[in-house]
Write a structure and sequence with these properties.
This protein is α/β, with parallel strands linked by helices and about 625 residues long. The protein contains 22 helices and 16 strands.
């Protein structure tokens, strides 16, 4: 849980509206082409929560501490709850703050303290700091968002930060001093940035768990705690004085009784995102001229994701003032003053560390490329501000930094939408044409397939009509096809297999022929040369085998004849007698050159023998 980032995005809910990218004051959320959704760079985040507030689909959320709180409440250790004075703006539905205190105690909390006393302590520290002026002007703040902003984006001002902890850390030190080092501390307030501060807290400033007001409401609901079932209970001491006004813009200044006369004051107050950012920039660049300290807050004490009351700011300020007045009805100033002196001796100092997250300005060429991509003129003044930036150039600079994408520019998006619309129309037309061509091609292929099928069936029929065995095998000597006559020639076993597997498809030739015969097939495969008819003994049969290549080194065919079959014997005798006669005629011709006229008589005699043999055979046939 502690390793989980403070702010996260639920990509299942994200609609890619990029509002979070536009609203983030420090550009900690990026939109890029490598990711389908915006991504949060937590090292750059200052915990202001603006992205959470503006996310309409509620895809962005802060880290929950409810389960941690439940574990703490089960602890047998002494437990103290520290309550921000902003409670008045959140819990207007609770009629009396004293009932709220008792509701907290019903969650197994031993003591409930308001943080306003810590604000009184800090106010006194600030007043002393300003009174002991030694040439350095300070930035005072009780807001962790402002601290993070300076550490990450104005690290040169680290030495100008008033060196004191936040009210949460200061009050934690007070209760540790009062209740013991082993006390467990639960802080309840409106600022989500305090969750990360608590993770780094240690020693007598340790804060174990931080709950926001909405999280506290959830716990009340789960534990069925309601003001109707509780009695009054006051905050435990030490109680605060004007520190209860802290949520208001100049509440800390009021608590410190610092002069607010515009003519003589040494402090300038700034509240809100825009004012805070601009005033810190002004302080860094013009403090030598201004000659004023700066008190800055982001404004999350009465707003932000850690508070659920979405009423107007003025109304919530009224609630805080009303609450402060009610708290002061039974206020004993002397007791408060004694407590102040008791705890002022504690060390409330805090160290700050630079964590520079500034992105260097991109090369001017990259900025010009970005401007050109948006089809803007570099000198153009057409700044619609719909992208969230004041000028197109500012947008182009962040685009060159890789923070935003061009689609976030409405003009670019509309232009691209039109372009894609035209392109889509053109593609649809091409698709329709391609479909038509595909349909024609399919019909042609089907026709060719039917023709090929007919040709294959005709070839198979012709193979079955042949009296010789025909077999076709692949490079592994597996039978691709064989006619029925081939099975007949091989014998009963082959015929039985042929009945189960027509054409002996897939059968191994080695199972039917001896190694010598198979070697002939292998020879033809490897050398791509035919083997003319060879007489080979196969069992009790004499086979004549002719092997020839069909596809080089891949497929070969063979013609197998049973030489003892009557029709084969008859044809073979005629064939071989003709071969003998041809050879003898060739020899006679050679002899004729030597013997002259005698050769003609011999030739006539041999021809007559052939004629007599042919006529006898025809009569027998």
């Amino acid at each position: 849980m502690q390793n989980e980032p403070l702010v996260n995005i639920n990509t299942d809910k994200c609609t890619n509206c990029f509002t979070c990218v536009r609203i983030c004051p420090v550009k900690a959320i990026r939109a890029n082409t490598q990711s389908p959704h915006p991504s949060i760079e937590n090292s750059r985040c200052i915990g202001c929560g603006d992205c959470i507030e503006t996310c309409v689909p509620k895809a962005i959320y802060y880290r929950s501490s409810i389960e941690q709180a439940k574990q703490l409440l089960k602890s047998k250790s002494k437990k103290v709850a520290l309550i921000s004075p902003s409670l008045a703006a959140e819990f207007e539905d609770i009629t009396d703050y004293r009932k709220f205190v008792q509701m907290i105690k019903m969650m197994n909390i031993d003591h409930v303290n308001e943080v306003s006393f810590a604000i009184d302590l800090l106010a006194y520290k600030y007043l002393t700091l300003f009174g002991d002026f030694k040439g350095r002007y300070y930035i005072t703040t009780c807001d962790q968002v402002v601290v993070s902003f300076i550490e990450k984006y104005h690290p040169n001002l680290i030495q100008n930060l008033a060196p004191f902890g936040t009210p949460m850390l200061v009050m934690s030190k007070v209760v540790h001093q009062k209740y013991g080092d082993d006390v467990k501390v639960l802080y309840i307030g409106p600022d989500i940035a305090s969750k990360d501060v608590a993770l780094k807290s240690a020693g007598d400033s340790k804060v174990d768990v931080v709950l926001t007001f909405p999280e506290l409401r959830q716990l009340f609901k789960e534990k069925q705690i309601d003001e109707n079932i509780v009695e009054y209970s006051e905050f435990d001491g030490p109680v605060g004085y004007k520190g209860s006004l802290y949520p208001i813009r100049n509440g800390l200044i009021q608590a410190a009784d610092i002069d607010e006369n515009l003519l003589t004051t040494a402090v300038i107050c700034a509240e809100g995102k825009k004012e805070m950012i601009e005033s810190i920039w002004e302080f860094e660049n013009n403090v030598k001229i201004i000659h004023r300290n700066l008190h800055a807050t982001y404004g999350n004490s009465l707003a932000g994701p850690g508070i659920s009351n979405r009423g107007s700011k003025l109304y919530k300020e009224y609630l805080v003032i009303k609450y402060a007045n009610k708290r002061l009805v039974k206020f004993f100033r002397s007791e408060w003053y004694d407590n102040l002196n008791t705890y002022l001796n504690l060390d409330f100092s805090r160290e700050f560390h630079p964590d520079d997250q500034r992105i260097p300005d991109p090369p001017i060429e990259k900025v010009r490329e970005a401007i050109a991509l948006m089809k803007r003129n570099e000198d153009s003044q057409a700044n619609c501000s719909q992208c969230g930036y004041s000028t197109c150039r500012e947008f182009a600079i962040d685009m060159a930094k890789g923070i935003v994408i061009p689609e976030m520019c409405p003009t670019f998006a509309i232009r691209n939408s039109q372009y894609f619309s035209d392109t889509l129309k053109e593609l649809n037309e091409k698709l329709a044409s391609t479909r038509q061509m595909l349909k024609v091609t399919e019909e042609k292929v089907k026709s060719e397939h039917d023709t090929a099928q007919q040709a294959s069936e005709l070839a198979d029929s012709m193979l079955e009509k042949l009296r010789s065995g025909i077999v076709i095998v692949d490079y592994k000597l597996k039978i691709i096809k064989a006619n029925n006559q081939f099975s007949v020639i091989l014998g009963e076993e082959a015929e039985e297999i042929n009945e189960v597997i027509p054409g002996l498809r897939g059968a191994d030739l080695n199972k039917f022929f001896t190694e010598d015969i198979c070697n002939l097939f292998t020879f033809v495969l490897e050398n791509n040369e035919p083997v003319d008819g060879k007489d080979i003994h196969y069992g009790e049969s004499l086979l004549n085998i002719e092997i020839f290549p069909i596809r080089e080194n891949q497929v070969i065919g063979a013609i197998v004849r049973d030489m003892r079959a009557p029709e084969v014997q008859k044809a073979e005798v005629l064939n071989r007698v003709s071969e003998v006669i041809d050879k003898n005629l060739e020899m006679v011709q050679k002899i004729g050159f030597l013997l002259g006229e005698g050769a003609s008589d011999i030739e006539r005699m041999l021809n007559s023998v052939i004629g007599i043999y042919d006529s006898n055979n025809n009569k027998k046939g």
